[in-house]
Amino acid sequence: MADGAIVTLAVVLLLVLIGLRTPIFVALAVAGIVGLLGLGGLTGVALVPLALVAQLQEYALVAAPLYILLGEVLAVSGLGRDLFAAAHRWFNRVPGGLGASAIGSSTLFGAMSGVSISSVAVIGRMAVPEMLERGYKPAFASGAVAASGALAMLIPPSLMFILYSSVTGESVAALFAGGLLPGLLLSAMMIAYVVLRAKVAPANAPVDEERFTWADRFAALGRISPALVLIALVLGSIYTGIATPTEAAAIGALAAFGVTGAIYHKLGWTNLKKIFLSTAQVTAAVLAIVGSAFVFTQMLVVARIPDAVTGFVVGLDVPPTVIMVGIMLILIVLGCLVDAASLLLVVTPILVPAITELGFDPLWFGVLLVVNLEIAVITPPVGLNLYTMKSVVPELDLGDIFRGIAPYILIEAALLGILIAVPEIATYLPGLLA
Fold first, then answer.
1. What does the alpha-carbon distance between residue 164 and residue 296 come to, in Å, rounded to a whole number?
2. pTM exceeding 0.70
3. CA distance 157 to 63
4. Main subcellular localization, coarse class (predicted)?
5. How far apart are CA 279 and CA 23, in angstroms?
6. 178, 254, 319, 320: least CB-packed within 10 angstroms?
7. How far apart are CA 216 and CA 90, in angstroms?
8. What is the maximal distance between C-alpha atoms in the chain?
9. Is the pLDDT higher at 211 or at 277?
């Protein structure tokens, strides 16, 4: 059987397994092994264990469990409550102020955790019930939190950039820098939408009659100073060259323990057990996907699929920008079917050689890819942020969550267009670090 036919059958098998609700890491591993058996028999599979261990020993991946640990510590600290309270005091007189507050606090929390579902869980648990109690429409309230939770994927430190670095070899620090301005721009676009929507259709977000003095506002900033110090500690140590991203993750995790224990007094035995158990579960899930995705991509490499894709893309008689737009559209569709981490790990080895051959910057493409992954986590039927939102506020209807998220998918798509038209938004800060 021709190699192309074997790869096609492996991909069909993968889609069937996903359709049968098989865990994604099992689906990727089974489809990859079946493909390797078809391409090279037992010889093709024999090298998988050694190659798998080599992939999981990638130094950049050491940062992943450390940032996950940092996020889990902050999740039990109560810092999220202070972030939301501070944002509310600054945004309360703005139309849709609670929605804008939720986005602002998600932005800050994302700058510490790097994991989108953690942000949705922490901020959503406080912000959405508060909005519902004050008369906000469920779709308006849940959409703002589920969408802004995805900012943790783009604003450093980002788990997705760590995974992208492990596949491509791009600098994690440069990727973090590349995601900063697009992340802040996206946050501003989301806040602008919430304010305009509340002004045009006030029924979505009743006016907040509560008043805060300037003293209240600055006092609230004082209560979130531990968060600001953590952000400065992690990102500052990276960009000043004091620490690598992995070392900064360790520093941040230790500091998070200090803040949670000394300031918030939340490091009892129950919370410690919860922190380490949740960190182990999330880390194991991520590394299982990394390993199984590597098996699947090894099958694609053996069949020379990246070379074939590169040859096809370079041979197209259309402007490179049109090709990039087509790639983005394909990734948006794939994001509806596959979880973010799996999608990144499978498509990156295939697409990066092609876009490099076209003359595009792989770092810039990494930022575009992560914006696509943000769309993936808020797009049904697979979007994890949507189901996380439902789990932390069970009284919400999934239909309301789906309706609330729709405008933010368009906002994310608009950001993709802006980054394609003005790539310097993603490349300017990394250029300063070079």
1. 16
2. yes
3. 10
4. membrane
5. 19
6. 319
7. 9
8. 74
9. 277
151: closest CA among 379, 374, 430, 390?
374
Split into its structural domains, the chain has a count of 1
Place of tokens 């670090």: 433
CB 122 within 8 Å of CB 149: no
393: containing domain: 3-433
Question: What's the Rg (C-alpha) of the chain?
Answer: 22
- Amino acid in the structure at residue 73: V
